[in-house]
Amino acid sequence: MPSAATDRDDPRGRPEIDVFLDTLQDVPPHALTACQGWTAHEVVAHLVSGVELLTEQARAHLEGRPAPAVTDWAARELPYQALDDRVLRRRLETGEREMTELFKHLAAPDPTAAVPGLGWGMPVGELVLHMRQEFAVHRWDLVGDDGQGDEVLARPELLAHSVRMLQNSLLATGLAGAGGTGADFAARLRCPEQPDLVVEVRRGEGRFALVEPDDGPAVETDPAARLLLLWGRRPSDPRRVRSGLPPGQLQRLQQLLCGF
């Protein structure tokens, strides 16, 4: 069930949805996933809820109407979870195509501009990347490690999007817990031939940064696993992640990167 979009550099280029839909065909709705408390059906409901909200918001903007907003995501997803799974999967495919076409239209004047009432205040180009990343990460939630997933998750534009736009969300839970207590902190996650990713806490506030590599201690991994770690996941094979950090520093890093 591929979508028409294939060019990842185009605002409608969404190769991750093709991979997600192809994988979903072999995942039964009641299969457990890496998202606690969710089967594959709930993961799809979560994605359809987001896709249809963004579609509604984009259409409202183009028609000059107030855009619908959401304050309680869990409540919004309940009606989707109650849908028949076959209906839900069809709505994911058709909804993604419609959303992508609307994004293409909105991005045409300037993909770096934010559209009032659309998404979370992100520019349209960042929303495209955000949804690509959602499909990449949630595919891993369905099936875990595999070569196709590694190729998708390793795309540097997805990591860069998380660093630019999502550090507050991805660090919020960790900062509110044990990861946010204690002295200022910094640690690096390193991949060969790529910038180091710095995770730090200064005066109780956390941030990510991509910086030039150095030869200091770091957690060393591959690009796909690094994105998973940033999202509070861990690859199935623990040998993919190797730590050169002291134990206390590694523990603090893990406490910070606990997902949301």
Automatic annotation (TrEMBL):
MF GO annotations: isomerase activity
InterPro entries in the record: DinB/YfiT-like, MDMPI_metal-binding
UniProt keyword terms in alphabetical order: Isomerase
Domain Mycothiol-dependent maleylpyruvate isomerase metal-binding stretches: 17-142
Record-linked Pfam families: MDMPI_N
Record's keyword annotation contains Isomerase: yes
Stated name of the protein: Maleylpyruvate isomerase N-terminal domain-containing protein
Lineage, top ranks: Bacteria, Bacillati, Actinomycetota, Actinomycetes, Micromonosporales
